[in-house]
Design brief:
Chain lengths: 183, 214
């Protein structure tokens, strides 16, 4: 899968309006795959049709765990697979302190969510060609050990910020190219 | 130790409106160490509520223990009987134990904050979330569930910034600390031991521990 995405993925972190989706279409390099993020008010699940018409390569959805119980994470995975997303990227998600902050959920961590997704795929609940990625980091030995574990545990690929890499995981790594904010 | 914080005095005064006769109860254990409910704070509260009639003040060794609260409150039974309310400088368990043993309205004067480790007076740190699903034997003696703001049981997450936590940038990520401890002990292979999601079927509130007769 990493090779199919040419090792990079255009990241649209938030969808606040249809204009954001149009901007993603303009920012996509030829056949570049797109990761539709969950930081915005609008869920990428609702916009699969529009996202798939942009002319990008594969369209993937971010499954963020900060606001999901395991039930909702499963629902998002199954919905994404059913709707036709090429795959999902599991992300823990930012812990944003702010006034009137809702209760952070993190019912599952990324490893547990990966286990959930792999199990769903084995049981045929997710499409066989539905790819599962996990956001990872590389700045410490602990983070590198976790990234290696994601691949061992069944992730099709890991996703890192541009410029990061874990030795030995080059073939499994997709680098994010974050979209500039739409003007 | 249960770490408590004082509630706003004006809030307490508001809750006591119309209640003339009061008994003030402190905690000689946790709240005393926190300097939120010791005998000194009981005295300060009595002075702050000087517009009321304070029938009695008392510091109970463990007001959360109904056996002790019941025994000690009986010693001031006459004052309790005449009280319109009890002001409790205790944790939430203490408040409810006092309510159950006196059947009087109990006004909580403290917020119960967390289960704390005491480094020294004035320095209390949350090291255990009393989650009921302890993995500390797998994490080199560090409770990741508590030290990680997200409570991640298989970390670190992708938000780690080098070796630092993204939420507390001045602190090491606890999963980095766990890895370093394991590495120093020659146990880094144990780092990726998988911890299942918490089974909330048995761990939701209110929890009980009731011994069965043999």
């Amino acid at each position: 899968m990493a090779a199919a995405m040419n090792g990079s993925l255009l990241y649209l972190p938030r969808i606040e309006s249809v204009d954001d989706i149009r901007a993603a279409g303009k920012s996509c390099a030829e056949n570049e795959s797109l990761l539709a993020g969950e930081y915005g008010s609008l869920s990428p699940l609702s916009f699969h049709h529009e996202l798939s018409k942009l002319g990008c390569g594969n369209v993937l959805i971010e499954i963020m765990l900060r606001n999901k119980s395991r039930d909702l994470a499963e629902s998002y995975l199954v919905s994404a697979s059913t709707l036709g997303f090429a795959g999902a990227v599991i992300a823990t998600g930012a812990f944003e302190k702010r006034a009137n902050m809702p209760m952070p959920v993190y019912d599952l961590d990324a490893t547990q969510a990966l286990m959930l997704a792999v199990g769903l795929k084995k049981r045929g609940t997710l499409r066989a060609n539905f790819k599962i990625g996990v956001r990872a980091a590389s700045g410490s030995e602990a983070a590198q050990a976790r990234a290696r574990h994601f691949v061992i545990a069944g992730a099709d690929f890991i996703v890192m910020p541009h410029g990061e890499m874990v030795q030995g995981l080059e073939e499994s790594t997709v680098l994010l190219r974050e979209m500039k904010p739409f003007k | 130790m249960i770490v408590t914080r004082k509630k706003d005095l004006e809030l307490i005064k508001g809750l006591l409106a119309g209640k003339k006769n009061l008994v003030i109860v402190g905690c000689a254990e946790c709240a005393a160490v926190c300097q939120t409910g010791g005998s000194e704070q009981v005295k300060e509260m009595a002075e702050a509520l000087s517009g009321h009639t304070i029938l009695a003040t008392i510091s109970i060794q463990s007001p959360c223990d109904k056996r002790i609260s019941s025994r000690d409150m009986k010693r001031i039974a006459e004052e309790v009987e005449g009280a319109d309310a009890i002001v409790a400088l205790t944790c939430g368990s203490g408040v409810q134990a006092l309510d159950e043993v006196t059947s009087k309205p109990v006004i909580a004067a403290l917020d119960t904050h967390f289960l704390g480790m005491v480094e020294r007076l004035g320095r209390f740190y949350e090291r255990c979330s009393h989650c009921g699903a302890c993995i500390i034997n797998d994490t080199a003696g560090l409770c990741a569930v508590t030290a990680c703001p997200r409570g991640i049981r298989n970390g670190p997450c992708e938000m780690i910034r080098g070796t630092k936590c993204d939420v507390f940038p001045d602190r090491d990520c606890v999963w980095h600390a766990i890895y370093e401890r394991m590495k120093a002990r020659g146990e880094s292979d144990k780092f990726i031991a998988y911890h299942e999601p918490v089974d909330w079927a048995e761990l939701h509130s209110p929890r009980e521990e009731v011994w069965q007769r043999q």
